[in-house]
Amino acid sequence: MYKKYMDEELVDLLKQGKDKAFDELYFRYRDLLVRFVCVRMKSIPIAEEIVQEVFTTIWERRKVLVIQKKFSAYVYTSVRYVTLDYIKAHTITDQYIKEVLDSNTLTVNSNNTMESIFHDELQQAVDKATSLLPKKAKEVFVMSRFKQYTNKEIAEELNISMETVKYHISYSLKFMRSYLGEFN
């Protein structure tokens, strides 16, 4: 019904609370935006999460939404900013997780008691988070991060696709970020 409408007309209908107009905008841009984010994030689940967040915000703010130019420019800009916020929010946690998981490069200075305590607490938290992962995700994550297997080696050993390996690693890292949020 709304396929023939221009974006700006759909936005006006959206402001009036027409959920079908929202649906049309969502389906018109969803796949394009997921690809756009995926190029930067290298993860389809994360890209989908970011796009979903942007459209959720659009829906929640539909009555006060101000779009000065085209909807396409607005939504791409929104997705770009949410992506940058996501990267910024997860960079510190990712660095700590990498330090703990990469025991070859981690050097704890025994003279620095606070750093040692922090490292021990983080290691315990990583171990606990790993134990809480679903069985297959845990298996893939341990092979990837603790045993240093490549994605191809994991796929071959577990007889699963590379995409499945990537999915489990992405899921596990997202879970770790959430679980280890206090270390941010």
Mean pLDDT: 81
Helix content: over 70%
Biggest sheet layout: none
Distance between the termini: 47 Å
Global Rg? 21 Å
Low-confidence parts, pLDDT < 50 over ≥5 residues?
103-111
Percent in strands:
under 5%
Structure annotation, total helices:
8
Number of strands: 0
Question: In words, what does this structure look like?
Answer:
The protein is mostly helical. Helix content is 75%, strand content 0%. The protein has helices at residues 7-15, 19-41, 44-60, 71-101, 113-132, 135-146, 151-158, 162-179. Helix 1 crosses helix 2 and helix 3 packs across helix 4. The longest helix has 31 residues, at 71-101. It starts with 6 loop residues before the first helix and ends in a 5-residue tail after the last helix.
Entry summary:
The chain is mainly α and 184 residues long.
Blueprint of the fold:
Elements: H1 7-15, H2 19-41, H3 44-60, H4 71-101, H5 113-132, H6 135-146, H7 151-158, H8 162-179
Which key phrases capture this entry?
single chain, 184 residues, mainly alpha, 0% strand
